[in-house]
Every structure is written in C-alpha cells, then in structure tokens.
Specification:
This protein has about 220 residues and is mostly helical. It has 2 domains: about 90 residues, Helix-hairpin-Helix base-excision DNA repair enzymes (C-terminal) (Endonuclease Iii, domain 2, Orthogonal Bundle); about 100 residues, Orthogonal Bundle (Endonuclease III, domain 1), CATH 1.10.340.30. It contains 12 helices and no strands. Helix 5 packs across helix 6 and helix 9 packs across helix 11. The radius of gyration is 18 Å and the shape is elongated. The model has no long low-confidence stretch (mean pLDDT about 95).
Length: about 220
C-alpha cells in the first residue's frame, strides 16, 4: 500500500469517528494550559489534572507565578515528576512572559520555544490547541503511532513532524495531533498494541507485516 493511501484512509476514518477529539489536559486559560503542558512532560495527563486546580487557583496569572519562589512552587507540584526542574521552568516562563510578552502567551511557536521549559512539542501543542495554528506536536505517542502505521519512517521527532506536516492538510493538523495521541494512548499502546480492537489496522504498515507487537525503537 502506498503511503498516500495510508494517510487518506486513516485521516478519513479519524475524521468520521473522532471529530470531537481534543486535549485531555484541563485548563481555563492559555496561561494555565501552558502550565499544564509543561507539567505533563514525562507525566500522565491524569496525574497533572489531579493537581492543577489548586495550582491554577494559587497562580491565576503570569504576574503571580513570576513573583513566586521556585522552592515553594516545587512544593506545590511535588507529586508530579521532576518538581524541582519544572518549578524553575514555570517561574522562569512566567517571568519571561511578563518581561518580554506583556504577560500574554504568544501564538507563534518560534516565540513560544524561547520560554523556559517549552520545547517544540509544547510550543506546537499551545499553538495548535489554542490558536489553531497548522502545526503538529509530536510526543512519544504520536511518534510511535506514526511509525507503526507507516505514516513516517523518520528516525527523529523532527523527521516525523516533517512527514506528518508534508502529508496532512493544514486545516487537519491541529486535530490530527489529538487523533494520533489518543489512538496511541488507548489502542496502539507502547508495550502491547490492541490490534484486535483497532479500527484502522487495514491501513497499518506494522499490522500488514505482523510487526505491531511491541515498542517502536
């Protein structure tokens, strides 16, 4: 099967069956989504959602977080992975928002990646989820699923992002991120993909070759 056929079939199925797919992180403002995405690095959305209501209450706007002591913030997020480094990133991010962006979260991914704790994936999440920018955030789920399905042979996150961007229409890219991440989170899981329950297996390269049996290297 040609790659273009895989994309067409997979995207059509997702479009018909997962139209309402969206981020599972809870948030009430762009600033709070940025906090949640930074906290979600190497941590589950479920755990992050357990703690963000209190964090959002305590740090409602960038100016409050910018004036916080990183050690106090680390105590606030101690149940989340890597609290010390994430606390430094959060405070640094808020300070830069105040000093260079007038307290507003920018929409341009190239400006977002300047913020402490914000890599390309986080920047693309914010840009696509909030500002509907035609970018695709590639996390571990998107990377794994894209390679298994045969949407990309890229060896790096950047290469996979390029393949997805080149083959998915701009208006579908923000939604496609959610389609792939949710598929990877609940069906095409890392250790044991549930191919028997998968509704897009007929377009899947790994299933076609009998290779969807374990982690993608």
């Amino acid at each position: 099967m040609k790659t273009v056929e895989r994309y067409a079939g997979i995207l059509e199925w997702f479009g018909e069956n997962m139209e309402d797919a969206q981020t599972e992180l809870h948030y009430d403002s762009v600033f709070h989504l940025l906090i949640a995405v930074i906290l979600s690095a190497q941590c589950t959305d479920r755990r992050v959602n357990m703690h963000t209501p209190e964090i959002f209450r305590k740090y409602p706007v960038p100016s409050v977080l910018a004036g916080a002591d990183p050690e106090e913030v680390a105590e606030d997020i101690k149940s989340i992975t890597f609290p010390n480094s994430k606390a430094r990133h959060l405070v640094g991010m808020a300070r830069m928002l105040m000093e260079q962006f007038g307290g507003e979260v920018p929409s341009d991914p190239e400006e977002l990646v300047r913020l402490p704790g914000v890599g390309r994936k986080t920047a693309n999440v914010i840009a696509s989820v909030v500002y509907d920018k035609p970018v695709i955030a590639v996390d571990t789920h998107v990377f794994r699923v894209s390679k298994r399905l045969g949407l990309s042979d890229g060896k790096t996150v950047g290469e996979v992002e390029k393949d997805l961007t080149d083959n998915i229409a701009p208006e579908l890219r923000p939604k496609a991120h959610h389609w792939l991440i949710l598929h990877g989170r609940y069906v095409c899981t890392a250790r044991k993909p549930d191919c028997g329950r998968c509704q897009i297996s007929k377009w899947c390269k790994a299933f076609e070759t009998g290779g969807a049996t374990g982690p993608v290297k």
